[in-house]
Amino acid sequence: MRTGTVTDGCPPWCARDHSAHGPGRPFYHASETRSVTISRPGTPSGPERLDVETAQYLPDDPAETPWTPTVELALHAGGRYRLIGLTPEEARQLAAMLTRAASMPEPARDEYAGLTGTRA
Question: What span, in angstroms and rounded, lies between the C-alpha atoms of 28 and 36?
């Protein structure tokens, strides 16, 4: 991750190498991508993947204010992907919801397991 500031051309979280694009102002900043493999039984195309990164697009006119950075979620499945952009606040809310859901107690037990007959 770079250590520059936005005024240096890149925000500190930008991991892209803009030198390959030649001189001039970059139009897109992106953090390192973090991925989670999602395996589900019966998925014929194999595991799916969820990528997460921070991104910021810059307007063509340098006099315009850069767009607010977004958190991009890309779900790769079946040879395609869906992209969802969240504001930083929306991403924090989602992170809190995921954390809460992931820390739920163990799955409920089937209280009828081992009994014969039908359930009421």
Answer: 23
